[in-house]
């Protein structure tokens, strides 16, 4: 799907055997650079609101265990925080008993509650929950942080969806193949003409290649893509009765279809959980230190182990949407990032809130999205449809 549609390195390898069309290569993977900045001073702006509001979640109790990018200072803070909790109640407890002996019971309970409030307020400050750069995070802490990031992103992108326009599995698999080496926007601007002329696998399989090439020209690599989509259409007609199969093992046999494309189709056309490891996904999970793997299949397995299977498809959307709008490859908008407190790579990009806001894309930047026909939830959230090809 879009950049998402590019199947990264994985697909590239497989595609090479079947078709010249390769899913997108793993573009500049922004490495998870050490955070040298002081996130504490740069509370995320804009989208970060959601983050601040959420700090009451239970996970917070574990987050503070991380070091701040600043280094030891964070480690120190971590240790002192819990200590403060313990001492605070004790300190308040005594005076309460002295001044209000009649309310002994309620007073005694207050100190037990107070620490929690104090904790919440402390953790509400993003700077204090920033994870450290070192690989000293326990497995449990990693799982909690990863899931918290996903929850935070779900609040930031509650309308996240596949960004390729499609009305059925056939359109989705074709659109995903076409998205290699180009954006979902360009694919969405191209496929209306393609599907209007060739609405079924049978139609596309029997098409004049030169006519298909002309339609697909705007997507780039149009000759190879023509061979792929016509090839997969023929395979669908000959091997699957003209229907897109709903099994991974069948999908990856289709020309131009790798695991990434297959999971896009399974997750979004068949409702079967799948992780889409595209270039954005690879870049972000490395920045977040969810895994040190570089092979897409291994990334898929490593990240999949951090989440319930039922979360996989939405997780993919959240990560990819964040990568497209905020955590860009070359210049991530750290200063406007809602998950900055949870990111070891904070500071890899622009940390000035105002400058960071200008880096936001699509609806987060007040711009049109990639789909010409986006879901209603996206429109309700203020998102705008993409313009058709040639418009504006
Ligand atoms: S934009 Fe956010 S997720 Fe990306 S590197 Fe910066 S702080 Fe981390």
TrEMBL record:
- Biased composition of type Low complexity is found at 40-55, 71-111
> What cofactor(s) does the depicted protein rely on?
[4Fe-4S] cluster
Residues recorded as binding [4Fe-4S] cluster, renumbered to this chain, are 327, 334, 337, 343
Instruction: Give the catalysed reaction(s), semicolon-separated.
Output: 2'-deoxyribonucleotide-(2'-deoxyribose 5'-phosphate)-2'-deoxyribonucleotide-DNA = a 3'-end 2'-deoxyribonucleotide-(2,3-dehydro-2,3-deoxyribose 5'-phosphate)-DNA + a 5'-end 5'-phospho-2'-deoxyribonucleoside-DNA + H(+)
Q: Which PROSITE patterns match?
A: ENDONUCLEASE_III_1, ENDONUCLEASE_III_2
Name the Gene Ontology biological process terms: base-excision repair, AP site formation
Tree of life domain: Bacteria
Xref: InterPro entries:
DNA_glycosylase (IPR011257), Endonuclease-III-like_CS2 (IPR004036), Endonuclease3_FeS-loop_motif (IPR003651), Endouclease-III_FeS-bd_BS (IPR004035), HhH-GPD_domain (IPR003265), HhH_base_excis_C (IPR023170), HhH_motif (IPR000445), Nth (IPR005759)
HAMAP family membership: Nth (MF_00942)
Q: What is this protein called?
A: Endonuclease III
Q: What is the lineage of its organism?
A: Bacteria, Bacillati, Actinomycetota, Actinomycetes, Kitasatosporales
- The gene from which this protein is expressed is nth
